[in-house]
Specification:
heterodimer; A: mainly beta; seven-stranded mixed β-sheet; four-stranded antiparallel β-sheet; 0% helix; B: mainly beta; five-stranded antiparallel β-sheet; globular
Chain lengths: 112, 116
Amino acid sequence: DTEVTQTPKHLVMGMTNKKSLKCEQHMGHRAMYWYKQKAKKPPELMFVYSYEKLSINESVPSRFSPECPNSSLLNLHLHALQPEDSALYLCASRRGQDYGYTFGSGTRLTVV
Amino acid sequence: DQQVKQNSPSLSVQEGRISILNCDYTNSMFDYFLWYKKYPAEGPTFLISISSIKDKNEDGRFTVFLNKSAKHLSLHIVPSQPGDSAVYFCAASARNYGGSQGNLIFGKGTKLSVKP
């Protein structure tokens, strides 16, 4: 298995909803990442997990809450989002510093 | 302040010819560079990478060149194929940069169109 799987592929949620994005990989990668990409912009780093521990939080609002329950799974819990949070949310993983990143296909989130 | 710059938002090339995508960076601590290809509604797909100890890396039709003194890298695709049409992102990382241990910094991307 050489993929990063993200679910759901599309999500529409209201500003009062609570939802979660899921990311899964079975490549044994111990670093996992959440990126956010707005239209016509490069991906921007949100969170980094290294060995299931949060190592980087790039000043992301608390309405985004990451969770890494085990080495294969990464979640992003969403609550009270704003319409400007609508974007493509990408999960990535990699084996180590000398290796490239493997990206999932993303979750297209729309906040209404 | 953009640390990774792709100054050409788009590039159009005829099928069979060479595509050259350029990328400039400002942070001299970057020591690992990658190119990703992205189709609409999909995540970026890793293409090719190069470490700062090299100046060239080749993989099939794709070659990445690194000029450290100029802080410039380029991706050559030859021959270009219509299926290569996508947005290409240049990305860079640095060991222990701000303690972030190699997180990727992306350029804004170049949209490549290969015409049959």
